[in-house]
Design brief:
By secondary structure, the protein is mainly α.
C-alpha cells in the first residue's frame, strides 16, 4: 500500500523488491551473480503468484485462481500449499478428476500436518462431490485426526448418509462416534437442517 492508499500492482511491487535485492547485494559487497538474483526473483514470483491465486480463490474468481496457482507450481512443482489451493479451485469449476489428482499430490508432498490435513480435507470434498459418503467420511475423519477444523466437522455432520457410512449402523454408536469430534461446544452449531 502506498501512503495515499493506492495499491501497487503486484508486478511493480515484485520488480521494486528485486531492485531492492540488487542494492542490498551491492551494499553488502556480495557478488550479485545472475544465479543468486534469479533465485531471489523466482522466490518473489512464487510468493506473488501464490498470494494472487489465494486472493482470486477468496473472490471466487476460479479461472484466474487456477492460472495463478498453476504458474506458482511451475516454479515450485511440489509445493503442497499451492497444490491444495489449486485442488479447491479445480473442484469449484467441476474438474473433479484433476482436483483429486492435485489433492493426492498435496497430501504426498505435505511437510506439515496442517497442510496434509488440508489436502485430505480436499480429498473428502472430492469424494462428496462424487456422492461417495463412505470415502468422504474416511477422509474427513483422517483430516480431523491431524488438526481440528470447524469446516471439516460441519461437512462430516452434514453428509447426506453419514450414518450409513459408519462401521456400525446403530444410532447410538453413530451419535457417540460423531460427538468425539464435534465436542460439547459444537453440538448447537452443527445441528442438521
Amino acid at each position: 500500500m502506498l501512503r495515499s492508499g493506492i495499491r501497487r500492482p503486484p508486478r511493480i511491487a515484485g520488480i521494486a523488491a528485486l531492485a531492492g535485492l540488487c542494492l542490498i547485494f551491492r551494499a553488502e559487497g556480495a557478488a550479485a551473480s545472475p544465479k543468486t538474483i534469479g533465485q531471489a526473483a523466482k522466490r518473489l514470483g512464487y510468493d506473488d503468484l501464490l498470494r494472487s491465486g489465494s486472493e482470486h480463490v477468496s473472490a471466487k474468481q476460479w479461472p484466474q485462481a487456477i492460472s495463478d496457482l498453476q504458474a506458482a507450481l511451475r516454479t515450485r512443482p511440489k509445493d503442497a500449499t499451492a497444490l491444495s489451493e489449486l485442488s479447491f479451485a479445480l473442484l469449484m469449476t467441476k474438474k473433479i478428476d484433476q482436483a483429486q489428482r492435485t489433492a493426492e499430490d498435496a497430501v504426498k508432498f505435505a511437510s506439515t500436518s496442517d497442510v496434509k490435513a488440508s489436502g485430505i480435507f480436499q480429498l473428502g470434498r472430492v469424494a462428496e462431490a462424487r456422492s461417495r459418503s463412505a470415502d468422504a467420511m474416511e477422509h474427513y475423519l483422517a483430516s480431523l485426526k491431524l488438526r481440528h477444523s470447524d469446516e471439516t466437522v460441519f461437512r462430516l455432520y452434514h453428509l447426506k448418509e453419514w450414518s450409513d457410512a459408519l462401521p456400525c449402523r446403530s444410532a447410538r454408536f453413530a451419535a457417540r462416534y460423531l460427538r468425539l469430534f464435534v465436542g460439547a461446544h459444537g453440538r448447537r452449531l452443527y445441528r442438521r437442517r
